[in-house]
Amino acid sequence: MPHLSNQREKEHISQQGKKPKQQYRSAFRILGSYVVPHRFTFFLVAICTIIAIASELFQPYLVKIVIDDNLMSGKNEWGSIFVICLIYFGLSISGFIFTYLQNNLLQFAGQSIVAKFRKQLFEHITKLSMSYFDKTSNGSLITHVSSDTEAVNQFFSQVLHTLLRDGLTLIFILIMMFQLDGTLAMYCLVLLPIIAIIAISFRSFMRKTYQMARTRLSRLVAFVAENLSGMNLIQVFQQQKAQAEQFEERNNAYFKANIREIRTHVVFNKTFDLLSNLSIAFVTWVGGNAVLGQTLEFGVLYAFITYIRQFFQPINAITQQWNTLQSATVAVNRIWGVLDLKPDIADHSQPNLVDMESIQGRIDFNHIHFTYGNGSPVFQGLDLHIRPSEMIGIVGTTGAGKSSLMSLLCRFYDVQEGSIHIDGIDIREMRQAQLHRMVGLVQQEPYLYAGSIIDNVRLFDETISREAVIMACEFVGADPMIRRMSDSYDTKLSERGSGLSAGERQLLSFARIIVFRPRILILDEATANLDSQTEQLIQRALHVVSEGRTTMVIAHRLSTIMHADRIIVMRHGEIVESGTHTELLEIQGFYEELYRHSQNDAKIDEIKPTAKVLIDAGR
């Protein structure tokens, strides 16, 4: 976990440093395609922003009018002053209303884009081929869906808001300053190169401190996640103190990086404050002399000083968004890199539409060749033909190709040569949705979602009735177990069904098969981790669900497939033996050797409970 996290952070940093102009153009072009549908909303945002800024910036000008045209001139027109006060109050209300509208409209458009981004990303990931998941870590995908989309969210909620509002504010302030006095405005323009030099100088240092803090945070989070996953080992081997020391080391490193980042921001902000105060002092000195020389009105000087104070705020805000802008552009390019991927397995351009009711379940592996990536060949010309409604057991050592055979039938991967047919139709010519409805898979560790038992059996498909789910559970023998639960079929399961035993989870997966009625059933080591009593229960359920279906059982325990119509023995991607249980024992070949080993394992399993009793008695 720490290694993956560090590697990912290095990739993030390297992406930030690689051709930034191209990176920004690419990110803005991508975001622009999502902004187009909301162009009217963004137009309204721009209008509201202009009105809000104008409302705020005209307030000092109104004070200037009161000072110069009323107070300094000696007039006592209280009515005009009252009118100006009302206008001032109206501008304040206007600024509040249009700032509120601007923020809400911008957030609505931004959040809509981010939600679309996130939805599109998740849907696209679910459509990618299994080969992609073989080489991509789950943590990386979770980061794409969560952290990267959150970085895009920050672009709209922080960066775009700052660029739009503070950028326009800066332009309007310059316009108002030139409107008041061109000479003083030209003096203030001298500050822009100084501000640029400070911003560029701090930008590189701030980026390094930001990246250091993010890297150390990633290491800290990865370490915590790793420890939570292995908490049982930590407690069993009394590693709490050692792990706490390692955590403290990482925590202190993150603490120091955070302090450094905060100090950098404080120095940067205070430098701008110092420059702002020096500018105000300079304008006060120059303007004050002009006022004393009666070449400048006092109200103009007051308004100018107010604008100078406001002049530095947008520059400071825009500069501070640099890191967020970098993170957002990198995140957009990373997300688009995933969205741009094409699945290795795609539907045929003119798919063969299959009548699901007419499927018999004949399976033909015709001289197939298959290799994972650039690895060693798994199959080199394998032939296997399975009759409709036949139950076939598949056994062999690890790496023999048993699970690969199932993955090819489900079309998680495609063969490089040869073909796989169901009822004479090449599965590459079928729609994947039809194929996956036709082939049901029960794995060694059936996956259960956080939700009710009803929803887990029907996989949240509302078209399947509650009555159908209950009948399926009764059919496989899961009903008594479910009825004993607190809320029966409405009992909420935790993620992965942690409150259920392995056997209970398998029974629910068998109930799914009954509900979805696939014509072909695959059981991949479905009884590998069960005790003998639970295995007998699963065996009965297996007999029920396999009735009338073409069934392929990958077996770790040979007792699961002893009554199969045919057993094939695989070794190094080849079928070395085939026949019934009795026939294979008579051959006295590889199957007989596997059977003998399985019998010894069964005896050991029987001895274990007795040994435990003796150990407990000795205590």
What does it look like?
- By secondary structure, this protein is of the alpha/beta class.
- The protein is built from 21 helices and 12 strands.
- The protein has helices spanning 2-17, 20-35, 39-71, 78-127, 130-135, 138-180, 182-189, 191-229, 231-236, 240-292, 298-320, 322-339, 402-409, 432-438, 453-458, 466-476, 479-483, 502-516, 532-546, 581-587, 590-618; strands at 363-371, 377-386, 391-396, 417-422, 425-426, 439-442, 451-452, 492-493, 520-524, 550-554, 566-571, 574-579.
- The strands form 3 sheets. The chain has a 6-stranded mixed sheet with strand order 6-9-10-3-11-12, sandwiched between helices. Strands 2-1-4-5 form a 4-stranded antiparallel sheet, with helices on one face.
- Strand 4 and strand 5 (425-426) form a beta hairpin.
- Helix 1 (2-17) runs antiparallel to helix 8 (191-229).
- Residues 1-18 and 606-619 have low confidence and may be disordered.
List the helices and strands and how they pair.
Blueprint: H1 2-17, H2 20-35, H3 39-71, H4 78-127, H5 130-135, H6 138-180, H7 182-189, H8 191-229, H9 231-236, H10 240-292, H11 298-320, H12 322-339, E1 363-371, E2 377-386, E3 391-396, H13 402-409, E4 417-422, E5 425-426, H14 432-438, E6 439-442, E7 451-452, H15 453-458, H16 466-476, H17 479-483, E8 492-493, H18 502-516, E9 520-524, H19 532-546, E10 550-554, E11 566-571, E12 574-579, H20 581-587, H21 590-618
Parallel strand pairs: 3-10, 3-11, 6-9, 9-10
Antiparallel strand pairs: 1-2, 1-4, 4-5, 7-8, 11-12
Helix pairs in contact: 1-8, 2-12, 3-4, 3-6, 3-11, 4-6, 6-7, 6-11, 6-12, 8-10, 10-11, 16-18, 18-19
